[in-house]
Amino acid sequence: MSNPVRTCIGCAQSDDHPRHVLATADGAAVTWHMDCHSIATGCEICTAQISEAKDTKGDDLRKHLLKTRPDAKQAGWTAPSVKELLASVAPRTETKEG
Question: Cα–Cα distance between 85 and 45 in angstroms, integer?
Fold first, then answer.
């Protein structure tokens, strides 16, 4: 299964490369490539996750991230901000009202 193609607001490139998707106050999605987000805003999550990726981008960055997933001991996944984020995300269940 491939990732959806989205446009990075940092560089305006549209692709399916690794990205950080944020929700705005009105519920819209804002999409950044992880490297663009790290450079432009200093995002701690993106910076930590790509810290050992050197200057890899695109498909090479995806391969690196998949190889160093959260249960690996890669610095990006074990950074306090990432650990807190992962811990705060509970499995979601849908409820039906009616």
Answer: 9
